[in-house]
Automatic annotation (TrEMBL):
Presence of the UniProt keyword Protein biosynthesis in the record: yes
Keywords: Cytoplasm, Elongation factor, GTP-binding, Nucleotide-binding, Protein biosynthesis
Superkingdom field: Bacteria
SUPFAM superfamilies linked: Translation proteins (SSF50447)
Family matches, as Gene3D superfamilies: Translation factors
Gene name as annotated: tuf
Organism whose genome encodes this protein: Lactiplantibacillus plantarum
The keyword Protein biosynthesis belongs to this UniProt entry's keyword annotation: yes
One of the record's GO molecular function terms: translation elongation factor activity
Protein name as it appears in the record: Elongation factor Tu
Length: 90
């Protein structure tokens, strides 16, 4: 379960479960629930529970996301530059 950040999710959509693991799980949304009702469509901002075909609860961990197949890519490292403010700067 979680919040839909952008776009929509509907019953029958093909999805990928990505993040935190190297392998990407593929599934189909077989149901959507927003307590206490069942939905056909979830929109951005909705907190929903998604029922996924062939995926056990143990295969999904906190922090993973559902996405349209091929729409996002995970990364393990990145380069960045950090500037630390001095005491006078705040």
């Amino acid at each position: 379960s979680g919040r839909i950040d952008r776009g929509t999710v509907k019953v029958g959509d093909e999805v990928e479960i990505v993040g935190l693991h190297e392998d990407v799980l593929k599934s189909t949304v077989t149901g959507l629930e927003m307590f206490p009702k069942t939905l056909d469509l979830g929109e951005a901002g909705d907190n929903v529970g998604a029922l996924l075909r062939g995926v056990n609860r143990e295969q999904v961990v906190r922090g993973q996301v559902l996405a349209k197949p091929g729409s996002i890519q995970t990364h393990k490292k990145f380069k960045g530059e950090v500037y630390i403010l001095s005491k006078e700067e705040g």
